Amino acid sequence: MKVAFHQIVGDEYVRRISDDGWFPGDEVTALTPVDGLVSLRRIGSDRVDVTGRMTVIVTAACDRCCRPVSSELMIELTYHCRLGRESVDGVATVAECREEDCQTLFLPEPIIDLGILLREQIYLALPARVLCCSDCRGLCQQCGTDLNDTRCSCLQDGDGGPFSVLRQVKGK
Ligand SMILES: [Zn+2]
Ligand SMILES: [Zn+2]
User: Fold this and answer.
1) What is the whole-number distance in angstroms between the Cα of residue 128 and the centre of ligand 2?
2) CA–centroid distance, residue 104 to ligand 2 (Å)
3) Is residue 10 very low, low, confident or very high in pLDDT (cuts 50, 70, 90)?
4) How far, in Å, is the centroid of ligand 2 from the Cα of 105?
5) Residue 12 has pLDDT above 50, yes or no
6) Which of 49, 51, 108, 148 has its CA 20 to 30 A from that of 11?
7) Phi, psi for residue 50 in degrees, rounded to 5
8) Tell me, what's the pLDDT at 172?
9) What HEC string does the chain produce?
């Protein structure tokens, strides 16, 4: 999804997001195709502002019980793409803006690879923790039983955890 500066004519160049290989499918499992639009505005000869939004439903394993959890990523993005300065060895570098929600991207040539921006946004939008529910009990560390479904005998034997202490108190 590369767009050259010269392709942006008129006020705005709007493009529907399509997956032409930019989506990090090896690491992120998408249940739906990415849906969204990006809009490019040319600001002078050396700058293009990119704004857009996209949604995609992804799935990942719960950190505690490993059940698949799907979540909808709703992403809004803003980039200021500038030609030239602050590029290092011909590689575009990203510098954070003072505003938290925008970034300046320095380009070695007047071509914006939207795939790079979109992929970065997918990574940023992924939840740091994946939980099927806030009170997921997880798997028993000893026998692997999914404690959301059933209890195992390991717990009843007591392992010195807070529950075994409670049971002792109650038993007295
Ligand atoms: Zn879980
Ligand atoms: Zn167990």
Assistant:
1) 27
2) 51
3) confident
4) 51
5) yes
6) 108
7) -115, 125
8) 45
9) CEEEHHHCCCCCEEEECCCCCCCCCCCCEECCCCEEEEEEEECCCCEEEEEEEEEEEEEEECCCCCCEEEEEEEEEEEEEEEECCCCECCECCEEECCCCCCEEEEECCCEEEHHHHHHHHHHHHCCCCCCCCCCCCCECCCCCCECCCCCCHHHHHCCCCHHHHHHHHHHC
